[in-house]
Every structure is written in C-alpha cells, then in structure tokens.
Amino acid sequence: MKFRQSLLAKYLIVVVVAILLLPLSIPTLSILLYMPPILYNQGLKPHEGPSDFEKKWHQQAKTLEGASDEEVNASLLVFQQRYPHAELFWVDESGETKASFPRDETLPKRWTVAQSIQFMKDSFDSDPFTVVAFIGENQSNGFMVLKMDREHLKLPIERLGKQYEYIFTGVVLLVMFLFIFCSWIFFQRIRKRLVRLQHAMEEKGANGIPHPVERKELDEIGQLEESFNVMIIQLEDSQRRYQEEETLRRELIMNLSHDLRTPLTALGAHAYSLQKEELSENGRESLELIDHKVQFISHLMDNLLSYTLLSSGKYLYEPKRTDMGRLIRQFLVGWYPIFEEKNFDIDVWLPEEKVEWTIDSKWMERILDNLLQNINRHAAEGKYVRVSLTKTTLTVADKGNGFLAETTEKGAGVGLAVVDMMVNDMELTWRIDSHASGTTIYIENHIER
C-alpha cells in the first residue's frame, strides 16, 4: 500500500490544513477589517490625524482672503462634502454667524467677545476636536471653525478597538472548530467502516461462516477487509475439507461396524458352542477370555456406531413421557445376574410415587447400559453398584478406584462420549464426582423442578 493512500496520510492532510489555516487567516482578517475603513470614494485615502486637519483648515482659511460670503460658503461646503463627519461654521468681522454645515440652530446669531473667549476655552483639547482659524491674513476678517469627533480621527485599528479582538478570537475559535469538525468527520467515517466490518463478522451465513465484505478503499481498513475476505475463503475451504473428511470417517466407522459385526457374532456363537464341550481348566479360562473380549469389542462397535449416528443427526430420537421407575426396574433385570456372578452388592432405591421424565426410553437404556458397563469393567474391585432415583435426579455410583485409576480394559472414552451427546440432546445435564474411593454420576432433569 502506498503512503498517500493510507489513513495516516489523510489525517496528516487534515492537520497540515488546520496548521496553515490559522496563520493565513490572520493577514486575511486584517485586510478584510482594515481596508473597508480606508478604501472609499473610488480610491485610496491616507489616514489624516488631528494635526493634518488643523493644518489644512488654516490653509483653507488663508485662501479666503478678500472672498465674498458666497465664496466662503462654497469653500466650506466643499470641505464638508469631503469630510462628511465634520461640522463647519464661520463668523464675519462683525461677529455674526453667517453659515453652518450642517445647519446648527444652537449657534449664537451674533457673537460677543465673552462668548468667543468662552468658546475658545471650552474647545481647547476637547472632544469633538475643534480648530479655529482666522479668515485670510487679517484677524479682523472674522473666523471659521472646524469640529469633528475624535473617534473619526483615530487609526482604523484604534476605531475597531475591542471589536477587532473579539473578531480575531472568533476566527481562531472558528479555525479550531473546523479542525475538530473535520477530525470528527474523518474518524466517523473510520468508525462507520469498522462497525460495518464488525457486523459482517457477526452475521453468519447458513454454513456458520460470515459473508465476504466489499472492499471500497485501498487504505489500512481496506487491507483489513481484504484479509477478512481471504480468511472467509480459507474457512470455507477448511470447512469443505472437514466435511469431506468427516463424511469419510463416518462412512468408515459405519462400514467397519457392519463388517465386524458378522465375524464377532460368529465368534460369539462358536464360543457359546465350545462351552458345552469338555475342556481342560486352561481351555475353559481361554474360552471365557475370548467370550469376554468378543463382548467388549461388540459393545465398543455399538458405541462407535451410535456416536457416528448421533454426530450426523441420524440416530432415531422419539421423546415421550416415560415412567422412570418402571424403566429402571425392567432394565436392571438383565444386569442382576452379571453383578451377582461377580458378588456385587447391588443397592437400588426407587421412589414409590410415579416419576415421569420426557425422554427417549431407548436412549436412556443405552445411557444406563454404558454406565453399568464401565462399572463392570473398570470398578469391579469395589464390588458395589448403586442406582437411585428422585423426581429430578438419577444417580449411578460405585466404589471402585475412580476414573484416574489404570485398568487393563481402559478404552478411549467412546461410551461416555455417547452418554454426553444423548444427555445433552434430551436437554438433561450430568456431572461426575470421581475419587479414589468411588465414582458417582448424577443425571439431572431441571425441567421437572
């Protein structure tokens, strides 16, 4: 992936733009604020301060030496039009106010010496800024007055005052807001894409594997989406191969179970026939060992076949309300001779009242058969078996050496695996309490509580 296509490059662009935007906005702001007060009347007008106005006013007054009243009025009117914020008036040699621009009715019609002196005194260094100039070279020609608010004589930046600071602060805040907003948009898009990828991971298809996602960008998240799609392809391929191998394994186990059942049945039949013949003590012991091993292999093949059918969901399951006490009594009838032959102490406790569970009776018989087979083969030294039933719990216990003890017939645990699958499919639970003095297995029906 190229750097310019990465998320880092995109975010660096946002940061650089924000960094450059602030210093560029300062001169731009200054130009926008300073130029309007300076540029007007179709041209550039330089700033004029109090001394400039005072000088110009005196020069204007000198040019009016010997001018008529109309000429003086025209001159002041032109000056006032040039400086619309100024107030102008003039007084002739007799002390009469001849004209004012704009017209001011508060001015005296005729000035006395005292009024003139008081006006001069009040106008000195006051606001509005006031300039008094004698008309022409002779002081007896009268005088003219210029008045202007000092606010209009300040520099543009001075007239802006705090307003400029507020605007400048506002621009800085605006730039910061734009940076935060752009960053928010940037990360919001990233979050949206990540959430989209998360939903794609959580939404599984019919085969239990998520669907591929569409790759829209070439950045890091785009690479993650591409890796996710590659993983999906690998998972689908792996699942396909697993299903093929699982199918072959199940077919192999089922074929072996069927193929071995016939010779095992024949061996069992011949062993039964030999029991009727006269044999030596060693021969009889060998015959008993052969018969025991044939039964062991037959039971193992039954468990393998059951496990395969359960795994593939092809084991017939017919749940219904079943009298557990009656089922256990009928089932134990076939096991009594086996345990009595080995001098087992058989302890059976069943309640007098009827206890019903919703189960498949054939499955429960298979579970009990596997548990009792384990006791017969791996816990025979304890000489004890107990089967008890309550409303919610079926208990099978022995006094052997526990699951951790080594026996000559210890298998791969296929029988218990079948028990586990059948118990779970019937929505029951089970647990094993095993130690050196015995093992107790509890099968519980929480639905009946």
What is the arithmetic mean of pLDDT?
81
- Could you say what the CATH topology of the largest domain is called? Heat Shock Protein 90
Tell me the CATH architecture of the largest domain.
2-Layer Sandwich
Instruction: Return the structural class.
Output: alpha+beta
What portion of residues belong to β-strands?
5-15%
Largest sheet: 5 strands, mixed
Protein traits:
449 residues; alpha+beta; Beta-Lactamase; Helix Hairpins; five-stranded mixed sheet; 13 strands
Description:
- The chain is of the alpha+beta class and 449 residues long.
- The protein has four domains: 3-43 and 159-193; 48-154, Beta-Lactamase (2-Layer Sandwich); 206-315, Helix Hairpins (Orthogonal Bundle); 317-448, 2-Layer Sandwich (Heat Shock Protein 90), CATH 3.30.565.
- The protein has helices at residues 7-38, 50-62, 69-82, 113-123, 156-160, 162-202, 220-274, 281-312, 324-333, 336-341, 361-378, 414-425; strands at 39-40, 43-44, 87-91, 97-101, 129-134, 143-148, 320-323, 345-349, 356-359, 384-389, 393-398, 429-435, 438-444.
- A five-stranded mixed sheet has the order 8-10-11-13-12. A four-stranded antiparallel sheet has the order 4-3-6-5, covered by helices on one side.
- A hairpin with a 2-residue loop joins β1 (39-40) and β2.
- It starts with 6 loop residues before the first helix and ends in a 5-residue tail after the last strand.
- The model is unreliable at 40-44 (pLDDT under 50).
